[in-house]
Task: inverse folding
């Protein structure tokens, strides 16, 4: 018997996760298909500590949004040309390089040929295809509008890629500047400062405190440099592993909301993600209550996602979407107002799309401001550190020279 952890969606679209004992994976899949459930992920339970440790230290390469967007665009183009879905998959997979996405698509193509629906086949690879992708495809299949749904998905992915690219582009220059300055200062301390140690001993003059401290740090770094480098790499690996755990991710997300400028950036990004994902699903014909579970699960900041996690219960009690949002602490008043107007006018999808565009503009302005603020601070820090090093090294030499004169 195998113990398998299964994450699945029931007939109402609610996501659940349970551990089942079964003789074979095919038998388990057949049982779920009979009940009308969609399997989102399957994972064999690992019992030994060594296996769990190996899994924790393994950094898996996930499928990027860009790869999903390219696949969705090509699939939509082929379907628009009148090609059958299985033929479209054959064309897309012909001479495709082995990757996580292509391997998943080969299995999806095989499942479709065996009579499984596209959404169910995609749902078996939840590590590749997010919930919004699967459930939007479900809506497209039910409405017989798969091609238009694929168009909505490409628009959603394109917008998500654009805003993330904007944030990365704004922060990449300060990151490079910080890395280069750190390497330069480390090189000076490890390689240049020791050259002055013999000179200072020959002078026989008392050294200032800053110079003595610099020589001690240089000697210590030179002796323990490789051990420190290994420790730093281990710390980075541990931090990444910690951030991948549910508890660690939640603590990091909570910390982001305590840093002034980063808090504004995180809030705007979360609001943009919430509005755009919700707009994509509502425009795809998925009911609000069914959409919320997917939208909340897809939000990157888990602390903010937990705030919105009460929305499905409030809506089930008969409360309107806008009124339910208003009852959640720290929800922007403009978001509440826009959603209430969208509900009243029957144009909720378009209003949510406009709201997401607004927050994208806020993110753009904020990233420009953060970049403009970080650059002079980094230059000032570099000037202080390099100036201190130069003074600490040259002051004893100049003092000794003046005494000789």
Result:
């Amino acid at each position: 018997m195998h113990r398998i952890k299964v994450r699945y969606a029931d007939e109402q679209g609610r996501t659940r996760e349970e551990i089942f004992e079964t003789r074979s994976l095919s038998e388990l899949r057949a049982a779920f298909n009979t009940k009308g459930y969609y399997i989102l992920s399957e994972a064999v339970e690992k019992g030994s500590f060594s296996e769990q440790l190996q899994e924790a230290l393994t950094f898996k390469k996930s499928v990027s949004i860009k790869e999903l967007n390219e696949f969705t665009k090509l699939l939509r183009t082929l379907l628009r040309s009148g090609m059958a879905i299985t033929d479209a998959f054959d064309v897309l997979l012909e001479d495709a390089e082995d990757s996580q996405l292509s391997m998943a698509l080969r299995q999806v193509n095989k499942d479709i040929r065996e009579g499984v629906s596209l959404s169910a086949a995609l749902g078996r690879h939840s590590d590749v295809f997010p919930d919004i992708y699967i459930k939007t495809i479900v809506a497209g299949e039910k409405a017989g509008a798969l091609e238009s749904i694929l168009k909505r998905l490409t628009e959603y992915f394109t917008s998500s890629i654009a805003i993330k690219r904007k944030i990365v582009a704004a922060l990449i220059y300060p990151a490079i500047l910080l890395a280069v300055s750190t390497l330069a200062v480390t090189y000076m301390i490890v390689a240049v400062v020791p050259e002055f140690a013999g000179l200072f001993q020959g002078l026989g003059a008392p050294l200032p405190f800053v110079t003595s401290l610099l020589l001690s740090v240089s000697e210590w770094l030179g002796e323990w440099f490789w051990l420190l480098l290994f420790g730093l790499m281990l710390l980075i690996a541990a931090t990444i592993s910690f951030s991948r755990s549910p508890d660690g991710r939640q603590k990091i997300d909570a910390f982001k909301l305590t840093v002034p400028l980063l808090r504004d950036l995180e809030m705007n990004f979360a609001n943009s993600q919430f509005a755009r994902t919700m707009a994509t699903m509502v425009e795809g014909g998925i009911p609000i209550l069914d959409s919320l579970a997917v939208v909340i699960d897809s939000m990157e900041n888990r602390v903010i996602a937990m705030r919105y996690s009460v929305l499905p219960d409030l809506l089930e009690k008969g409360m309107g979407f806008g009124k339910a949002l208003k009852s959640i602490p720290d929800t922007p008043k403009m978001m509440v107002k826009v959603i209430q107007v969208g509900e009243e006018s029957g144009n909720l999808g378009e209003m949510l799309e406009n709201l997401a565009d607004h927050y994208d503009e806020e993110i753009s302005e904020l990233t420009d401001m953060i970049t403009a603020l970080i650059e002079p601070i980094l230059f000032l820090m570099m000037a202080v550190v390099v100036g201190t090093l130069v003074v600490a090294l040259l002051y004893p030499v100049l003092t000794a020279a003046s005494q000789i004169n």
Q: What stands out?
A: The radius of gyration is 28 Å. Residues 65-159 form a domain with the Receptor-associated Protein fold (CATH 1.20.81.30).
